[in-house]
Write a structure and sequence with these properties.
Blueprint lengths: L12 H15 L11 H8 L3 H13 L3 E4 L3 E4 L20 E2 L10 H14 L16 H11 L11 E4 L2 H12 L5 E5 L4 H9 L3 E5 L1 E2 L2 E2 L1 H11 L3 E4 L13 H13 L3 E5 L22 E6 L11 E4 L5 H12 L4 H13 L1 H24 L3 E3 L6 E5 L6 H10 L2 E2 L1 E2 L13 E5 L5 H15 L9
Parallel strand pairs: 3-15, 5-6, 5-9, 9-10, 10-11
Antiparallel strand pairs: 1-2, 4-12, 7-8, 11-12, 13-14, 14-17, 16-17
Helix pairs in contact: 1-3, 2-3, 5-11, 6-7, 6-10, 12-14
């Protein structure tokens, strides 16, 4: 009879049993198809309760190590060979350190998500998410989406949730559903490039609204409404990309009132709202719920590959939004939606958010230490910084020089919806590399900024 040999005695007994089981499978002591002792037999051998052994077997099943067969017992599963995924380059292998993409740090993701994926694979209801879905998604997936949205909109109802294949798809669905070809769509004067490309590809006329350190200026929005008679405003009010501005309450209220005055619909892109305490800032959609589509997802807060987004919309828009989802992707992956729902319902998504907030705070501290003598705009838990370049730099010059020196950042020119002016800023994402690589890259950027004659090196 198989009896485990414990290693770390500080863990709960059920975990020690499960860990020993995993080690014995990896070492070959246990082979695929081997039958494990009954709960009673192993409990007697270890002087523990059958419940403890049962919990250990459940943990092993979550990890995909064993399978239980009714009336026969518990058996070691055939272990699948890992997919041939190319490993990430070790430090020094690549000539570039990429600080161009805003995403969560993935240092601890595999251990968290491995358990979630194993739990999903072992679920008895797995078959329900392997087929086509009607009515815009399973009710349980919409309910999980509503539970996630309720952190910021406490009264959110699952019946008003539309699932999308990530936030970018959510933007496509909202813009195409709430405006027509040749309509004017308003956005910030520094705008996420994904909005720019979507608007142009769909034949919308994108117009920029002036900003200050708090985001869109209400008087500028009013003037744009009078001049252009737009149908839609796309706005990021919390951790705006790229400037990191956070819009205060009074300004959110003012924008909502202007939207009502001019019958303007709002796409409230709250993709970074999770980085601030939910009690501190109400989404723009809370001020004008009858004319706002609230957008969020798990790709920034949990994992980029988790391509599930959530639109929360007023009832009169739901059929249009759902129809556009069907036209564009037919349906978001139910399998991915189930994984997202499990993460939300188990509380793991909230734990992962806290991990990312702590990691972002540490990296922000590093950025301030290295680049603090320059004008940077950021927030304590932001995933990026906006660096305003000193003279005589331009955005494109500095971004190109940085790339030539092994660091990729994004030129501010990429964020201009209208090329009516130039910019002297670059966006620097902080979360992708290791802390050691980040420190090296930021130090290199600082040395370029300190160059006495920068254009000589360009």
């Amino acid at each position: 009879m198989w009896v485990p040999h414990y290693g770390d005695q500080t863990q709960p007994v059920y975990l020690m049993i499960a860990n020993a089981l995993e080690q014995d499978i990896e070492s070959g002591r246990l082979a695929a198809g081997d039958r494990l002792p009954t709960l009673k037999d192993l409990a007697e051998a270890l002087s523990v309760t059958p419940g403890t052994v049962g919990r250990a077997y459940d943990e092993a099943a979550k990890r995909g190590l064993v399978v239980g067969e009714v009336g026969r017992g518990t058996f070691v599963k055939q272990q699948r060979q890992p997919l041939p995924i190319q490993s990430a380059p070790v430090a020094g292998e690549s000539s570039q350190i990429d600080l161009s993409i805003i995403k969560p740090n993935d240092a601890h993701m595999s251990e968290w998500l491995g358990a979630a994926i194993s739990e999903l694979a072992a679920s008895t209801g797995l078959g329900q998410v392997l087929d086509y879905v009607t009515e815009g998604g399973h009710t349980s997936h919409k309910q999980a989406g509503a539970a996630w949205i309720q952190r910021w909109l406490p009264d959110a109802s699952w019946q008003q949730v539309v699932l999308t294949s990530g936030a970018q798809h959510g933007l496509l669905v909202a813009i195409s559903s709430l405006s027509k070809s040749d309509d004017v769509v308003l956005c910030e004067s520094f705008c996420y490039p994904g909005i720019i490309s979507l608007a142009h590809s769909m034949g919308r006329r994108l117009r920029a609204v002036a900003m200050d350190e708090h985001g869109i200026i209400p008087d500028a929005l009013r003037a744009a409404c009078l001049e252009h008679r737009p149908s839609l405003l796309v706005c990021v009010t919390t951790h705006q990309n790229p400037t990191n501005s956070i819009m205060p309450h009074a300004r959110r209220q003012a924008i909502a009132e202007i939207a009502r005055e001019f019958d303007l619909f709002i796409v409230d892109d709250d993709i970074y709202g999770f980085l601030e305490p939910a009690s501190d800032y109400k989404p723009l959609a809370a001020y004008a719920p009858e004319r706002s589509v609230y957008l969020t997802s798990l790709s920034k807060s949990v994992l980029p590959a988790l391509r599930i987004g959530y639109l929360y919309a007023p009832p009169q828009t739901l059929s249009r939004l759902s129809s556009m989802v069907r036209s564009s992707v037919w349906m978001p992956s139910p399998l991915m939606a189930q994984l997202a729902s499990n993460l939300i319902n188990s509380g793991m998504a909230d734990q992962l958010v806290r991990v990312q907030q702590d990691e972002a705070a540490a990296r922000q501290h590093m950025a301030r230490e290295i680049l603090g003598r320059y004008n940077i705009r950021t927030q304590p838990h932001s995933f990026h910084i906006w660096l305003e370049l000193p003279e005589p730099w331009t955005s494109d010059e500095f971004a190109n020089l940085a790339r030539n020196n092994g660091v990729t950042v994004v030129s501010g020119s990429q964020f201009l919806p209208e090329r009516s002016h130039t910019t002297c800023g670059v966006r620097i994402a902080l979360m992708s590399p290791s802390r050691q690589e980040l420190g090296f890259a930021l130090t290199k950027l600082a040395s370029l900024l300190d160059s006495p004659e920068p254009r000589l090196f360009y």
